[in-house]
């Protein structure tokens, strides 16, 4: 309290207000977290013999990378690639077609409450499981092959896009909606002029981004039997053909980078 | 022509925005609606085209009881009521022309509007309106590429494209500088006079209101406390609308002593040892 008296005489002190005011509590939390981290690391059981074996295998894998073999398994690789790309394109298109109405229905400022509830529930279900688990389920239902992969990616596209579209629509500038409604425009005209025009650039970016994710996913879910380049990669690894596996990985990296650049370009153009 | 009777609006939060407002607007008459923030000005004009649902009371435009309409009928009635907004409310990513044509949405079907295939007459009307507001050179620019004054003129052209009988104008100058504000007000009053349009103008700048609007309605806490000529806005009347203030002094001198933190409890915590020393 004596600072009150001292204040007018000297310069007044200021320090940044802390998130946790009590100093002892702040330090207790920091030290506690540090201690837990040390104990947790200590509890991880490292089997050094297996690590050294793994390093040897890794060395073989990397030496395979130095001489990737594109030729001896080319027909398999080609077929895997075509399957993956087909899967990706079909699933993205199909997913977008379904995601648009669901996303619109899941936006609170556009849809009536009952529709909002239904659409949000669909989104929650579509997002509930990780792609690999969904792929395993679909493979169990429809057998090995690209159809299971297509369904998996479609579902994940619906989950991803509907949610982000809905969230975007909920954040649009409402005054533009008011303006179009006040001209006597109908519901779909309001959606076209006031809603779509505001979310379209981000939507195009999201679709391009999801396409790129879908291609990557398609190579992962192939490993659990959903076809595509992932299945080819899995076969190559099972046969210890690291040079072919390296070729496949390089191709995947190349295509993912191409998609990345393309989606970046599209987003920039649409802004 | 426009007749508002005992209009009431209670928001879901329980706030009583309008407590029984009644007045009429004659054909060709421009009315200024003034009042402090939160007096219900915005709510009132949004009740007229039913962007906000009134709780009680009635609004008639000509022979049509706007408050009874639903669905399609309401959209038909809205075609005859143009609206101009404070922040312009243009569709930012569409071109100037598309924004003006959007004033015709009530008259064309969805697919025609989706493909931007508006009737030839609508396009000619849009061109002549853009000529009239001086934006002929900006037809294909995106709305967000224009300056504030230009955007408000697009907003005016959009409202007039509807071929309205009544204009609802919500704070048309609040986002504009003083000179542009006057130009926009002059344009609005002139266009209304040319076309014999009636209008309600929400406006918080009393001087600007007096300059351009012959009749003023003062709203306070959802009630009409003044309805008369602009010349009748005496200090007494302004106090009735806005509350106690010395209206004879220029705005700069009006800073009240009690706005300063001298009397606030911070002084006791030692943060403000001597607030008067700040001056």
Describe it.
The complex is a heterodimer of chains A (271) and B (279). Chain A is mainly alpha-helical and 271 residues long. Chain A has a single domain, classed as Orthogonal Bundle (MetI-like fold), CATH 1.10.3720. Helix content of chain A is 79%, strand content 0%. Chain A has eleven helices and no strands. The longest helix of chain A is centred in the last third of the chain and has 35 residues. The model of chain A has no long low-confidence stretch (mean pLDDT 87). By secondary structure, chain B is an alpha/beta fold. Chain B has a single domain, classed as P-loop containing nucleotide triphosphate hydrolases (Rossmann fold, 3-Layer(aba) Sandwich). Chain B is 33% helix and 21% strand. Chain B has ten helices and ten strands. Chain B has a six-stranded mixed sheet, sandwiched between helices. A four-stranded antiparallel sheet of chain B has the order 2-1-4-5, covered by helices on one side. In chain B, a hairpin with a 2-residue loop joins strand 9 and strand 10. In chain B, helix 5 runs antiparallel to helix 6 and helix 6 packs parallel to helix 7. The C terminus of chain B is likely disordered. At the A-B interface, helix 8 and helix 9 of A face helix 2, strand 6 and helix 4 of B.
């Amino acid at each position: 309290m004596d600072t009150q008296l001292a204040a007018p005489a000297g310069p007044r002190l200021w320090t940044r207000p802390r998130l946790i005011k009590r100093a002892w509590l702040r330090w207790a939390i920091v030290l506690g977290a540090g201690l837990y981290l040390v104990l947790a690391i200590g509890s991880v059981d490292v089997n050094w013999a297996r690590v050294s074996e793994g390093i040897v295998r890794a060395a073989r894998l990397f030496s395979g990378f130095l001489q990737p073999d594109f030729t001896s398994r080319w027909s398999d690789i080609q077929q895997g690639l075509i399957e993956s790309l087909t899967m990706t394109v079909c699933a993205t298109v199909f997913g977008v077609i379904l995601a648009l109405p669901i996303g619109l229905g899941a936006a609170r400022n556009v849809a009536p409450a009952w529709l909002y509830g239904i659409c949000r529930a669909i989104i929650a279900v579509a997002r509930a499981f990780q792609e690999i688990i969904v792929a395993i389920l679909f493979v169990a239902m429809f057998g090995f092959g690209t159809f299971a992969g297509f369904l998996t990616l479609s579902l994940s596209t619906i989950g991803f896009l509907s949610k982000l579209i809905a969230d975007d629509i909920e954040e649009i500038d409402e005054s533009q909606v008011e303006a179009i409604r006040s001209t006597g425009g109908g519901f779909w005209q309001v959606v076209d002029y006031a809603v779509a025009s505001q979310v379209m650039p981000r939507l195009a970016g999201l679709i391009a981004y999801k396409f790129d994710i879908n291609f990557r996913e398609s190579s992962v879910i192939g490993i659990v039997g959903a076809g595509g380049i992932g299945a080819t990669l899995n076969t190559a690894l099972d046969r210890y053909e690291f040079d072919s596996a390296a070729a496949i990985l390089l191709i995947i990296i190349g295509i993912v980078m191409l998609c990345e650049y393309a989606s970046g370009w599209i987003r920039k153009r649409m802004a | 022509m426009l007749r508002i009777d005992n209009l009431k609006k209670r928001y879901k939060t329980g706030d009583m925005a309008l407590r029984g407002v009644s007045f009429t607007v004659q054909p060709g008459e421009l009315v200024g609606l003034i009042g402090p923030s939160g007096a219900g000005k915005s709510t009132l004009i949004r009740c007229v085209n039913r962007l906000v649902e009134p709780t009680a009371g009635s609004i008639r435009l000509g022979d049509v009881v706007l408050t009874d309409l639903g669905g399609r009928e309401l959209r038909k009635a809205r075609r005859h009521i143009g609206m101009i907004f404070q922040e312009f409310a243009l569709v930012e990513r569409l071109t100037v022309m598309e924004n003006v044509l959007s004033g015709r949405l009530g008259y064309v079907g969805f697919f025609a509007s989706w493909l931007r295939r508006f009737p030839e007459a609508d396009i000619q009307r849009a061109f002549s309106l853009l000529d009239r507001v001086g934006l002929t050179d900006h037809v294909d620019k995106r709305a967000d590429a224009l300056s504030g004054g230009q955007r408000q003129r697009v907003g005016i052209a959009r409202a007039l494209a509807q071929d309205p009988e009544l204009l609802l104008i919500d704070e048309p100058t609040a986002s504009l500088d003083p000179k542009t504000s006057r130009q926009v007000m002059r344009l609005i009053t002139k266009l209304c006079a040319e076309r014999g349009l009636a209008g309600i103008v929400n406006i918080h700048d009393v001087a600007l209101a007096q300059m351009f609007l012959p009749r003023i309605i003062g709203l306070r806490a959802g009630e009409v406390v003044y309805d008369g000529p602009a010349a009748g806005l005496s200090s007494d009347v302004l106090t009735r609308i806005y509350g106690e203030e010395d209206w004879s002094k220029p705005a700069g001198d009006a800073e009240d002593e009690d706005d300063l933190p001298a009397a606030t409890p911070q002084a006791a915590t030692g943060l403000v040892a001597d607030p008067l020393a700040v001056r």
